[in-house]
Design brief:
mainly alpha, two-stranded parallel sheet, single chain, 251 residues
């Protein structure tokens, strides 16, 4: 076992490193390095319709928010209607998903580097509130699609996405039998299904009004990761035990 004094110095070094890392980049208020994101978040005087809740602090511009509502918009030339016309009740969730992705300044804990031609960073395993995932799936369950993962594998020969040659359009529930399968698979695990409700403070909300509730959620995960106890709490506990040992033993 390491001497307690050595553990103390190691713990203190970790605290300093942790603090320097926290100060080096404000992950509670940042924009990812992607195709249409601003360099830094900030207020926008006007954001269009479903993107409006982010206007006080956004990573998207007004033009991006407007394009998020368009079919085959210039943002990604993505065709929602690849298996016939997508229902309006389903499409509204994809618009909201686009607003969340483009506009949210509180995705720092889940931003990862990626090697893609159109972006240098992506989000991975963002914990999604159960209500948002379930309502998305419920409103799309009578629609059709031909692919599980919409991030890749499309036929882009026409300039917009079409179903691959050997695929077929199937009912939504055949491709995604559960809300969890849809939310986790549709964008290559950008989202992680949770059983947390919107009132828990432990999941990110696609839909909200008023003050953005996701900053506090991001802060929780930034401090805690997947552990129930914050990193700093574990370090303090170790330091307390070491100090107690030094007092009792005189070492």
């Amino acid at each position: 076992m390491l001497p307690c004094s050595r553990i103390m110095w190691t713990a203190l070094a970790l605290v300093l490193a942790f603090c320097r890392g926290a100060l080096s980049l404000d992950k509670l208020n940042m924009c990812m390095d992607a195709k249409h994101h601003k360099v830094e978040p900030g207020p926008e005087g006007y954001l269009y319709r479903q993107c409006e809740p982010w206007r006080d602090n956004a990573c998207c511009t007004s033009n991006t928010s407007t394009a998020a509502h368009d079919d085959n918009s210039y943002l990604y030339n993505f065709n929602w209607n690849h298996c016939g016309a997508m229902s309006e009740q389903c499409k509204k969730h994809f618009i909201q998903d686009t607003c969340f992705y483009e506009c949210s300044p509180h995705l720092g804990p889940w931003i990862q580097q990626t090697d893609q031609s159109w972006r240098k960073e992506r989000i991975l395993d963002v914990p999604l509130c159960q209500e948002d995932c379930h309502s998305w799936w419920e409103d799309c369950k009578n629609d059709f699609t031909c692919k599980t993962d919409w991030h890749k594998g499309w036929d882009w020969s026409s300039g917009t996405n079409k179903c691959p040659k050997d695929s077929r359009c199937s009912k939504w529930t055949e491709i995604y039998p559960t809300p969890q399968s849809m939310c986790e698979q549709i964008w290559s695990n950008s989202y992680r299904y949770t059983t947390y409700s919107k009132t828990s403070g432990r999941c990110m909300q696609l839909w909200f009004n008023g003050t953005n509730p996701n900053k506090k959620v991001a802060e929780y995960y930034l401090n805690n990761g997947n552990n129930p106890k914050p990193v700093w709490a574990n370090i303090i506990s170790a330091l307390f035990l070491c100090v107690t040992s030094l007092i009792l033993t005189g070492n």
